Amino acid sequence: MTPSLFPPLPSYEGLHPIVVHFPIALLLVTPLFILLAMAWKSQSRAMLLTALILSALGTAGAFLALNTGEATERFAELVPAAGPVLESHEELAEIAAKLAAGVTLVLGIVAAVYAKVHERVRTPLRLGGGVVLLLLAGAPSLTIARAAHEGGVLVHLHGVHAPVAVHTGSGAPATAPRHDDDD
Question: I want to staple 104 with a disulfide (CB 3.0 to 4.6 A). Which of 51, 55, 112, 166 is the partner?
Answer without folding.
Answer: 55
